[in-house]
Amino acid sequence: MRNTLKLASTAVLQSLDQLTPHKDGRHPVQQARQKFFVAARLAVGLCVLAAGPALLYLHGLPSLQHAAQYTLALTPLASIVILKTTGSLRLAQDLSICGWLALAVSVSATTAGQEAVSLSLLTIALIEAALTMDIVMVAGVIGLTLTLIVVGAASPNYMTEEALALRANVAMSVTPLMIYMAALAAGAILVEHARARADRRNARDLRLLTDAIGDIVVHFDRTGAVSSIVGDTHKAYGLETRDLLGRGFFYRVHVADRPAFLKLVSDAVSGGAPAHAVLRLHVGASQNASGYIEPVFNFFDARTCHVETKDLDENGAPVVCILRDITATKRAEEEIAAARRESELAMASKTRFLANVSHELRTPLNAIIGFSEMLGSKDLEPQDPEKRREYARIIRDSGNHLHEVVNSILDMSKIESGSMQIFPEPFSMPALVEQCCDMIQIKADHGQVGLLREYPLDMSELVADKRACKQILINLLSNAVKFTPPNGTVTVRLWIEGNNLAVSVADTGIGIAPPDLARLGDPFFQASATHDRAYEGTGLGLSVVRGLVGLHGGAIAVESALKLGTTVTVRLPVDGQRNPERTTGGTKIQVMARHGVGAPGQDVSHERAVSQAVGHKQEMVKKIA
Q1: Model confidence over 176-207: pLDDT tens digits?
Q2: Better pLDDT: 479 or 504
Q3: Cα gap 365→359, rounded to integer Å
Q4: Does 415 score more than 50 pLDDT?
Q5: I want to staple 524 with a disulfide (CB 3.0 to 4.6 A). Which of 58, 331, 353, 612 is the partner?
Q6: Cα distances (angstroms) measured from residue 465 to each of 70, 158, 274, 528, 588
Q7: What burial class does residue 470 get, using C-beta atoms within 10 Å of its C-beta: 0-12 exposed, 13-18 middle, 19+ buried?
Q8: End-to-end alpha carbon distance in the chain
Q9: Average pLDDT, whole number, for the chain?
Q10: Is 563 left (phi over 0), alpha (psi -120 to 50) or beta?
Q11: For residue 557, what are the β-bridge partners?
């Protein structure tokens, strides 16, 4: 039985809600006033409509006077229509009050002996005037009521003295009661106005508080839908109230955080204890570097608390949530974590630097010290002049090696600090490649590595720093020859690619493992570097190349795989135009793992570009050492 009544009341309330105007953000009190205004007048109007057939059956066709009074009795239904169409409760109340007053005046003026009906109608009008919370309206109804009483108590020609005396007694009895009712209504109105002012003051203080601390305060129901929002802090993020009400807030939560949000509301409702979670909320959109529109999510610290609903209706919001924007804190944490990772990488680089440099310095220094002591000692000095010249040559080679190591470290330091300067000038790149290849030829012959050169002779001049380009070529060729086993080949290619000149150095060497590709170009890093490594070097060659290419505004790409060789491609602007902002770390290396069964060192990705750039009629230089 209880459930049946509950379902019936719910159905009635839903029906009443359909008759009230639907507007977003209606105050709950205003919503309740509209709903029960409709309920009372709908009940009265339906009763009047139901009484119509019975009156016709009992009294026959009504007179014009009675038809007008019956029409005035239907004024409550007209007030419901006014409320639904205009949304103004005050206008609907004014129409209803006027209808009751007009009906009271009509009954008092045309129907003898119906003073009780007239007074009842005036009492209804007074009650409705009191519900408007307008003292002026109450005063007007009281004034009209007293006027009707005075007029009724006057002495008409057709009334007897006994009737006049009876009306005078009624007037004297009813007038104080009406004044007392007016006083009660005025007092109730003043108290309601004071309560409303207090509510507005509290709402204002809460709104100012939320605006001052910058938090968004929302109320959720049991399903996680937003029922109301306190303050206008959300508008600072470009969000309107209608964007968050209902399921709007849920749809703005990041998909990955929605389970956490639902659990947050569920824990607050069931457990009663405050709950906490970090949510990402969609607050806008921005255009990325590629021109695509991407959503913007801010991090919010959401804290929910259960609200006791014993004194509230069942449809109340049982959860209040305070959202605090912690995006800046999250960004700072990410920056701190990134700085920590950079610090760890720097420490690792420092360790590698000490290991590599100590190895590169200790070996030649030992040779210099040892052989110089032998040459400086009469007992240890060899008598054979050829042997002494060999010792001197070893000392010279060791000194040159130390000189190269120190120069590499200084160049890398200048590049990273931004103090390295380049001086562009026009020059022939094929001629520079020839010169560099001739310098590396001895090392290639010693390692039994073939050096292959493929490029046209009549290429346009390149505007760049000639010394820097020479160092780029020397470093790339040295690395290619060093990591290529005997009977392998190193191929140098040149071609024009749009506004860039491309230089490719491909070898058939040992290649680079995929895990090491991502770290290429880091200072002092060598692929699979160990203290007992088989290949000498500080790991600065490719780092210097990366920095010099970056200073020219160029690009560098590496394609490699274990036992499939390595191809390094450098692209430099032909006209020397580069970005005015120089990066201290150099350009980023584009790495790609090599796949396929092609011959090691074959530059498949640029084969077609080279063929188009060279042409069949151009003279080719093709030398195999």
Answers
A1: 777 777 777 777 778 877 888 887 787 777 77
A2: 504
A3: 10
A4: yes
A5: 353
A6: 104, 125, 66, 33, 20
A7: middle
A8: 104
A9: 78
A10: left
A11: 569, 590
Q: How far is it, in rounded angstroms, from Cα 440 to Cα 438? A: 6
Tell me: pLDDT of 411 over 90: no
Tokens for 388, please give them: 């002494």
Is residue 334 classed exposed, middle or buried when 0-12, 13-18 and 19+ CB atoms within 10 A define those classes? exposed
> Taking residues 37-59, what's their average pLDDT?
85
DSSP 486-499: TT-EEEEEEEEETT
CA atoms of 552 and 273, how far apart (whole Å): 62
> What gap in Å lies between CA 228 and CA 380, rounded to an integer?
97
Specify the residue for token string 């990591």. Answer: 483
Residue-by-residue DSSP string for 408-477: HHHHHHHHHHT------EEE-HHHHHHHHHHHHHHHHHHTT-EEEEE-BSSPPPEEE-HHHHHHHHHHHH
Q: CA–CA separation, 279 vs 504, rounded Å?
A: 49
Candidates 336, 272, 257; CA nearest to 302 is 257
Q: Max Cα separation, the chain?
A: 167
**Tokens representing residue 320 in the block:** 């209040």
Alpha-carbon distance 396 to 181, whole Å?
A: 120
533 Cβ neighbours under 8 A, 6+ residues apart: 526
Mean pLDDT of the region 551-566: 88
* E strand or H helix that includes residue 572: strand 566-573
- CA torsion sign for 190, 193, 198, 199 is positive
Mean pLDDT of 554-574: 90
CB of 501 closer than 8 Å to CB of 575: no
266 Cβ neighbours under 8 A, 6+ residues apart: none
* CB burial string 582-607: b at 16+ within 10 A, e below: beebbbebebeebeeeeebbbbeebe
Is residue 217 a contact partner of residue 231, using CB atoms and an 8 Å limit?
Answer: yes
pLDDT of 126-166, one tens digit each? 888 888 888 888 888 888 777 777 666 554 544 556 555 65
What are residue 297's DSSP bridge partners?
Answer: 282
Instruction: Report DSSP letters for 193-242, one per residue.
Output: HHHHHHHHHHHHHHHHHHHHHT-EEEEE-TTS-EEEEESSGGGGGT--HH
Give dist(CA 468, CA 461) in Å, integer.
16
Joined together, the tokens standing for residue 227 give 């029922």
- Confidence band, pLDDT 50/70/90 cuts, at residue 624: very low
Contacts of residue 461, Cβ cutoff 8 Å, sequence gap at least 6: 426, 427, 428, 429
Contact call for residues 307 and 321 (beta carbons, < 8 A): no
The residues near 251 (Cβ < 8 Å, ≥ 6 apart) are none
**The token pair that represents 499 in the structure block:** 């506004």
> Residues 6 or more apart from 269 whose CB is under 8 A from it?
222, 306, 318, 319
pLDDT in tens, 346-376: 787 777 777 767 767 777 888 888 888 888 8
